[in-house]
Every structure is written in C-alpha cells, then in structure tokens.
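Appendix B. Raw example, untouched.
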Amino acid sequence: MAGNEFARADAIADCVLAAFDALPAHRKPRLPSSGLKAGRREWVPLAGIVLENG
C-alpha cells in the first residue's frame, strides 16, 4: 500500500471508531466494574460499513 492508501484506510477506521464511541454504554461490551467477575471482560468483533462519496 502506498502512503496515501494508508491515510485513507486510517480515516475510514477513525470514522468507524467514532461511530462506535458515540453509541450509548448499553450498546457496548461491559467492563469488569459493571458486574462481571474480576479479571473478566466482554469482547465483541467490531465491523463497519462505510460509504464514501466522491
């Protein structure tokens, strides 16, 4: 990949992560402080569909 392609890929990843961060807490994996056993943590795969105009 050329540098410009990496920058584009990073911009897409940033867009997906920003959308995930904007979700309310009840739509995200729980942290240990929210009732899970000590040392446990929920994990989920994160996927995004991005439409680019232009």
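End of appendix B.
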